[in-house]
Write a structure and sequence with these properties.
The protein is mainly beta. It contains 1 helix and 11 strands, in the order αβββββββββββ. The longest helix has 20 residues.
Length: 162
């Protein structure tokens, strides 16, 4: 009975992911992983790394939906794209609308620029980022503090502060 179950699970996985095999897939590594059949998500634990052609996500733990291209990560998370690095406690990223939301000690770094806040959201197609709660911006030796800061990462300029 056990070999039949293993074969059945293998066939389900094969047919479930056959269409995705022909699309550009992210490279996913972790210390351990499994497929949660109830949610359809891969659950990754320990040294999680998800690499796409444009971005790299790192976390202590994560869940990934290949179908919807969504990532939920927590614990020492990092989102990197070219010279941009976001870090924080948790991240939710969704490829459909090209956004990542980082909560808990959001920290953005780029050469000559540091922005820290309680949370941040980033739209990687437009390169616009919103920072909320206890925002501190350090740019070229100048410090700006605000409750909310909208920043244009493409042109390195503040769009709005409140």
């Amino acid at each position: 009975m056990k070999p039949l179950r293993i074969l059945w699970c293998a066939l389900l996985l094969l047919f479930a992911f056959l269409p995705a095999a022909f699309a550009a897939q992210p490279e996913i590594t972790a210390d351990s992983s499994y497929l949660d059949i109830n949610t359809g998500r891969y659950v990754l634990v320990g040294h999680v790394k998800i690499v796409t052609p444009d971005r790299t996500f790192s976390a202590d733990r994560a869940q990934v939906s290949i179908d919807s291209m969504e990532v939920w990560g927590e614990g020492s998370i990092s989102v990197q794209q070219k010279d941009i690095t976001f870090t924080g406690d948790k991240v939710y990223a969704r490829d459909k609308d090209k956004t990542a939301r980082i909560t808990g000690h959001a920290d953005f770094r780029r050469t000559g620029l540091i922005i820290q806040a309680d949370e941040a959201s980033y739209q990687w197609e437009t390169k616009a980022a919103d920072f909320r709660g206890n925002v501190t911006l350090l740019h070229n030796g100048r410090e700006t503090k605000a409750d909310h800061l909208r920043y244009d990462l493409e042109n390195n300029k503040i769009l709005e502060t409140t």
